[in-house]
Write a structure and sequence with these properties.
Elements lengths: L1 E2 L5 H8 L3 H7 L1 E5 L1 H9 L3 E6 L12 E4 L1 H7 L8 E6 L10 E5 L5 H13 L4 E4 L9 H7 L7 E4 L2 H10 L4 E4 L6 E2 L9 E5 L8 H6 L2 E4 L10 H16 L2
Parallel strand pairs: 1-4, 3-4, 6-7, 6-11, 7-8, 9-11, 9-12, 10-12
Antiparallel strand pairs: 2-5, 3-5
Helix pairs in contact: 5-6, 5-9
Amino acid sequence: MEINSLRNAQVKKWTKLKQKKYRKEYDLFLVEGMHLVEEAGKANLIEQILCTEECDHPFTQYPCIHVTKAILDKITDSVSGSDIAAVCHFPRSFVSQSKQLILLDHVQDPGNVGTIIRSAYAFGYGTVLLSEGCADPYSEKVIRSTQGALFHMQVQTCSLSDTIQKLKQQAIPVYATALHQESIPLSKLEVPKEFAVIFGNEGQGVDEELLKMSDATIFIEMQRFESLNVAVAAGITLYEMKQKSTV
């Protein structure tokens, strides 16, 4: 099958997938570039391949629609000039058995959300839970930042306060990152096998109500600046906590 017109009804539908409300309505999202298409394929999420006629790709098991470069440019936000994309459905039911959870509270920058998810996957975590105010994990910028890690984890939006209450019922401690006087230095933290850790908004940090619900607050000791970019801080914290929890 081949589509050449930017006015084609199917092209208009794919273009709508740039918006969160249409991703939810159609239960679909787009990925762009060979690597992300490959990762989506590993997770069995691909519905259709969209590529230029000249593109030589290995994804022959999926329905393929040949489109023009102009159409690919229209339906994606990438500036990389890739000649392949895929229409994907959301993961049907991925539930991690891990009891080491990451909670993101109003982390709004797509690059930060994506980088935290990527770091979490790299260090062996299986679950990232986002508050309603976070960047949409299935936006194109977040997906690119995760480099496909998103497809292999439990990543969902939920009420963090409800989640913390459930964790308390399971006797799973919750740690929040905060520069408080009573916060525990990360290097001195005794990390149990099961835990949850909260990272907050780029400017405001973790919401005060969530801080009150947490079992303890923690911070990264630094010699100069008082704080780090949230994605950098999360990478350091997640690595350190994972290492300590396996001792």
